[in-house]
Amino acid sequence: xxxxxxxxxxxxDRTAMENGVAGVDLMDAAGKAVADAxxxxxxxxxxxxxxxxxxxxxxxxxxxxxLKQAKWPVAIYxxxxxNALQGDAAHHAKRWRNKVQPLEAALEVIAGQDEGAxxxxxxxxxxxxxxxxxxxxxxxxxELLTVSQAQQPDRAPIVVxxxxxxGLGGDTGRAMDVKSGRQGAGVCFHADLTVTFCRxxxxxxxxxxxxxxxxxxxxxxxxxxxxxxxxxxxAYVNTPQLWGDxxxxxxxxxxxxxxGHVLVLGGEVMTGAARLAADAARRLGAGLVSIAVPTxxxxxxxxxxxxxxxxxxxxxxxxYKKILSDGRKxxxxxxxxxxxxxxxxxxxxxxxxxxxxxxxDADALGVFAGDPKALFKAVKAQAKASGGVExxxxxxxxxxxxxxxxxxxxxxxxxxxxxxxxxxxxxxRAGCAVLFKGPDTVVAAPDGRAAxxxxxxxxxxxxxxxxxxxxxxxxxxxQGMPAFEAACAAAWLHGEAAAxxxxxxxxxxxxxxxxxxxxxxxxxxxxxxxxxxEMV
Length: 536
What we know:
With 536 residues, the chain is an alpha/beta fold.
């Protein structure tokens, strides 16, 4: 499913209207979708509609009308004057035949509720395009409801947001602070349910916006797929719809040498990291997996690696390059447990110069902290030598990202850019796919394509899970999957495996869960069951 930026959503609206879809009909469908979603989830109760001065407020008037028709008790509290509304919002406000009260009066009503859970508040104040902090009465309302939700979650009013919770930046997934102007430190509404239209926005997928939206419902309001296609969006929710066609399938005559050979660099001290990466690569379908190990650590690996994993000892860089000279070893995974030392840097550059498909994680990124341009130059040279095919994936978490892209990390930290925009800039600069890890992992390609992964549970944040992810990506690269698609597929399967196992997960469990997830995925792909997959 595509993700539309705020500007792209406006463009989709315009395109639909230019092709004969009336704006009043789009608004009617949006408001009805809100009312329908509420009626599907909750029994009848008092409803307060907080309506803003623009189209979001117009959606609120429509939702109120449909709920009123269904005999729900509804009151509208409007920011500004009803006769100041314009366009489609004015049209639908005129269809509301009941009293409209000033927004300020809603404060007293909400604060005076003895049993807040009997109240449902529709936040129809501001949509995804708001570019300033909340202030005045709107800010007070957001704070009042948020405090109630935090202190008495079982007795707080239900909050339903139209498009996005007011105050949340549609492109950033963060709220803007009044004093600093920074994204991320401000006040916004916290919704139990958010109903958005046509396609999700970045705020619905990026953190903390995804949590602040509560349950997310994406509804069709009459904007056809061809209208969206004309916008040519290139951001997506990461599901198999995006990369399923490129996922490796085994032919009846397939053999191990046709499935690629992954070479994992093993470190001398943290030997478990490389073993996790190797096991993950094997489990995700690499035909052969070897761990290249310094000779002093050979006995440690020989006594501990899984049966079926090969071990290739070497004494120095020359010995490592000799291992690389085997053309059957087509993919390198470097970083897990490799050590933040110059020899790791040398092996990264050697793998690229040898024309290997590469996954660089952890120490393989940190060793370029003082000179990231050397890494980017080598990555681009490898792609050029391969006929322009990008076959490298960088997989930094936040700290590693800051070491390799310090200026981009600083802008992200200051709220100047979103994580989505930041990952795209990093991929363009590096000349390869970048998988920016986190609860909202973003995978970006140099050509601007990006995907946000939304299926990762909190317990995936455990030692070694990143090593497993690196091995998974390496296996898919080894089997010929393009870099961007391989990174997306691995991130999605990583999240699915963690969710399937549940709390108490350790990194090894991800590997054990992989057969079940692969079995489901391959069956779904074979029977074309993924076309209707929606945002998790």
